[in-house]
């Protein structure tokens, strides 16, 4: 394992905005491409320290390239520009572990998903970096429940307001190579107009019996299969 430590000299009166920006933009992009956040700390003198874990140096370089090329990184830069400077400088260094602890430090990250239904159709979205359409999903923000995160993600990605009906289940993302737990809700539209958010290339309704060719063991396929089984389909 190798670790990347980045130390930000935050602007004192903008620390809350910095943490919000980190949670909403920096964290989801890094985790999506395989970086693992060990922790984030705030020092007495106003610095913010973030430590990330990678399998090896090649993995770090691959993830760094993917993050830089992700369209969401452009969105993050634009958001930071609109907020104004949140920190003055930052330092970064790579570190190697000299002690391996006997307990795991790589805990799964929760992700909220939504099966938005309209009759016999499901609303799916295609992120810029994907070829297939998938269930609407996103990382939980501070203090959010899965249901609250699912409602927020649907609004941000599609412009629709939804009401959660129930939980379908939670699913390991090991089959797609990500250390995530995918918690999926069923929701129905109650307002808004369908539009495409900044991180989405397309959004459309699919008949529930004509969904994209997802691998059968993918979390999305398992969630829809469980929904249909519960409804006797």
Primary descriptors:
233 residues, alpha+beta, six-stranded mixed sheet, four-stranded antiparallel sheet, 5 helices, 10 strands, 38% strand, globular
Estimate what percentage of residues fall within beta strands.
35-45%
Helical/strand content category = alpha+beta
Average pLDDT across residues? 90
Sequence of secondary-structure elements: EHEEHHEEEEHEEEH
Q: What's the shape?
A: globular
Low-confidence stretches: none
N-to-C span: 46 Å
Query: Helical element count?
Result: 5
Question: Helical percent range?
Answer: 25-40%
Q: How many DSSP E strands? A: 10
Major sheet: 6 strands, mixed
Radius of gyration, taken over Cα atoms and rounded to an integer in Å: 19 Å
What does this structure look like?
With 233 residues, this protein is α+β, with helices and mostly antiparallel strands. Helices cover 30% and strands 38% of the residues. The protein has helices at residues 15-32, 57-69, 71-83, 146-158, 219-230; strands at residues 2-10, 36-42, 47-54, 87-96, 109-118, 121-127, 136-139, 160-172, 180-192, 200-207. Strands 5, 6, 7, 8, 9 and 10 form a 6-stranded mixed sheet that branches. Strand 2 and strand 3 (47-54) form a beta hairpin. Helix 1 (15-32) packs antiparallel against helix 3. The protein is globular, with a radius of gyration of 19 Å.
How would you concisely characterize the structure shown here?
This protein has 233 residues and is an alpha+beta fold.
Chain-wise SSE layout:
Blueprint: E1 2-10, H1 15-32, E2 36-42, E3 47-54, H2 57-69, H3 71-83, E4 87-96, E5 109-118, E6 121-127, E7 136-139, H4 146-158, E8 160-172, E9 180-192, E10 200-207, H5 219-230
């Amino acid at each position: 394992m190798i670790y990347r430590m980045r130390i930000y000299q935050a602007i004192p009166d903008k620390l809350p905005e910095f943490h919000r920006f980190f949670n909403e933009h920096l964290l989801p992009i890094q985790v999506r491409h395989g970086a693992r956040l060990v922790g984030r700390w705030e020092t007495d003198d106003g610095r913010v320290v973030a430590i990330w874990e990678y399998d090896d140096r090649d993995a770090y370089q691959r993830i760094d390239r993917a993050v830089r090329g992700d369209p969401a990184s452009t969105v993050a830069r634009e958001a930071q520009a609109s907020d104004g400077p949140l920190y003055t400088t930052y330092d970064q260094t790579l570190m190697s572990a000299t002690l391996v602890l006997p307990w795991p430090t790589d805990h799964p990250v929760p992700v909220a998903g939504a099966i938005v239904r309209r009759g016999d159709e499901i609303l799916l979205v295609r992120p810029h970096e994907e070829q297939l359409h998938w269930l609407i999903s996103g990382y939980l923000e501070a203090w959010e429940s899965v249901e609250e995160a699912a409602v927020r993600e649907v609004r941000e990605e599609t412009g629709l307001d939804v009401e959660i009906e129930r939980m379908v289940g939670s699913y390991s993302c090991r089959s797609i190579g990500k250390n995530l737990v995918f918690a999926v809700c069923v929701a129905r539209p109650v307002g808004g107009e369908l539009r495409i958010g900044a991180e989405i290339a397309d959004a459309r309704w699919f008949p529930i019996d004509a969904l994209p060719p997802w691998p059968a063991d993918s979390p999305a396929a398992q969630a829809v299969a469980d929904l249909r089984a519960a409804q006797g389909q």
